[in-house]
Write a structure and sequence with these properties.
Length: 269
């Protein structure tokens, strides 16, 4: 029943249906959205495949790069979802509207799992974004720790313009990065945010020419891999928890992480 509603053959989509490639080279994993003829539009198969990659990420991986093939990073959700026919095997918004609450919730939660693992402390995720990053495309870029963007980038949170809310984990990182007022502005107008503004707002760490994007990502990877892995993981844990903790709690968390580091590095016998 659930499969007919939203997720389709959720557990068994092929990479072709998912529209992405996954490659591992030592400590670096690369996910490439690979449906350029449809501007890397995403489906439930895409999100299911992303979740599976997260579930099975090889332990040696320290950096995950998310990028898009062709003219756009991603044009967001596949617009066939808005049609009565939907996406073959994956349902439509019409079929979703008929689902019971638990089924609906479960399917969205599974889709969100395709995004949340990109923030794990053990890895650093980098979105290499060029061209359009619309809706689910913008949210996928927001799910990553860092965004390095080409000067032609065009972010757009289009969901409210289509009557929807952003539900692929994007609202929290957006607010964390730009603040509530700017997030309201960006989402409720569904306007385009270009490279210069993205950099100014802190949405992008770096802006480079389109032809220099791949090299800029490689440079950042080299910098990230130059630090101690366990220290990087512990530091990321500290940074991720810092906003929610009081100063006293954060100090205690620093002490705890440091004790583990010092023991790992210097304890004898
Ligand atoms: N879903 C399905 N197909 C898409 C999507 C999409 N989101 N975006 C583009 N395509 C298809 C087009 O239908 C077209 O297919 P065709 O060649 O078979 O006709 C092909 O990709 C190329 O699209 P163009 O519009 O010709 O490409 P262009 O480079 O001129 O424009 C742009 C790119 C701006 C991204 C435009 O395609 C667009 O606006 N797409 C829709 C964006 C959108 O509304 N996404 C949903 C956001 S909400 C959410 O993600 C939850």
């Amino acid at each position: 029943m659930a499969d007919a509603v939203l997720g389709g053959r959720a557990a068994g989509f092929s990479e072709t249906e998912a529209g992405l490639r996954f490659e591992v080279d030592g400590e670096i994993a690369t996910i490439t959205l690979d449906r350029p003829e449809k501007r890397n539009a995403q489906t439930f198969a895409t999100w299911s495949a992303l979740a599976r990659i997260g579930d099975n990420l090889p332990e040696q991986v320290r950096v995950v790069v998310v990028q898009g093939e062709g003219p756009s990073f991603s044009a967001g959700i596949d617009l066939r979802m808005f049609t009565p026919e939907g996406v073959p095997g994956q349902g439509s918004f019409s079929s979703a509207a008929a689902a019971d609450n638990d089924t609906f919730d479960e399917r969205i939660a599974r889709a969100q799992q395709g995004f949340t693992w990109l923030r794990r402390p053990e890895i650093v995720s980098i979105a290499a974004v060029h061209g359009h990053a619309i809706g689910a495309g913008f949210q996928l870029a927001l799910a990553c720790d860092l965004r390095i963007v080409a000067d032609d980038v065009r972010f757009c949170m289009k969901e409210p313009a289509l009557g929807l809310v952003p539900d692929l984990t994007g609202t929290k990182p957006l607010v964390d990065l730009v603040g509530t007022a700017k997030a309201i502005d960006i989402c409720l107008t569904a306007r385009i945010v270009g490279a210069e503004e993205a950099f100014r707002l802190g949405l992008a760490e770096r802006v480079v020419a389109r032809t220099e994007l791949a090299q800029a990502v490689q440079d950042k990877i080299a910098e990230l891999l130059s630090t101690n892995r366990d220290a990087a993981t512990a530091t990321k844990r500290l940074l991720q928890g810092a906003r929610e903790r009081t100063l006293e709690e954060q100090c205690a968390a620093e002490r705890k992480e440091q004790a583990a580091r010092i023991r790992a590095l210097f304890a004898s016998g």
